[in-house]
Design brief:
Rossmann fold; 5 helices; two-stranded antiparallel sheet; globular; alpha/beta
């Protein structure tokens, strides 16, 4: 899944921040539909627990993940976003732990593992070395049978997702968006190899 980026142009009467929020809100249904379609291709995917990394206001968990998995945890580095995510998902029985923590500082639970780890722009805040370190930790937190080799033709029952390119925005190999470095699909595939997620 390669990332996509679009320049945010200020519209008359709108601040750049409001324009950005509108564009991200417009992309939300596409992200939701992408995950639903993708999981439809893999009936063997386990759906017990997932975590939304960089959950923001919690819309993705509310609209998709909470309806697919038995438990969904959420983390975000912004306390305001976590408060909003808590409010937006209040009363949903499948919501698990909600934490205000940076992804690189997050310690995966020891008492259980995840069937899916979802990320969006947040991984772009990390350097390549930090990305590999984090992905290796995430790999250990996945509930996959040990001793089994996985590849593109034999995907595991638990996944790590980076949902940066689920819309029709202008695609670039490298760009800077919201102060984050956005890379190409080739970069992410190489990163997955370095982290031992695919062979």
């Amino acid at each position: 899944m390669s990332p996509a980026v679009e320049e945010v142009r200020e519209l008359p009467g709108e601040s750049p921040e409001n324009t950005e929020q509108l564009e991200m809100a417009d992309n939300h249904p596409k992200a939701c539909n992408f995950v639903k379609d993708f999981l439809g291709w893999y009936p063997g995917h386990r759906r017990k627990r997932a975590i939304d990394v960089g959950c923001g206001p919690g819309y993705f968990t509310k609209d998709v993940l909470s309806k697919i998995y038995n438990q969904v945890d959420m983390i975000d580095a912004c306390p305001e976003e976590i408060f909003t995510a808590w409010a937006n998902t209040d009363g949903i029985s499948t919501i698990g732990k909600i934490k205000d923590v940076k992804m690189q500082d997050f310690v995966f639970p020891k008492e259980y593992k995840y069937n899916a780890i979802y990320m969006r722009w947040c991984i772009g805040y990390l350097s390549e070395e930090e990305q590999i370190t984090w992905l290796k930790k995430a790999k250990m937190a996945l509930d996959n049978p040990k001793g089994t080799r996985y590849g593109r033709k034999s995907p595991p029952p638990s996944f790590i997702f980076v949902l940066d390119n689920v819309d029709e925005r202008v695609k670039r190999d490298e760009a800077v968006y919201r102060n984050q470095k956005v890379e190409s699909r080739v970069y992410y595939e190489a990163l997955w190899l370095k982290a031992g997620l695919i062979s």
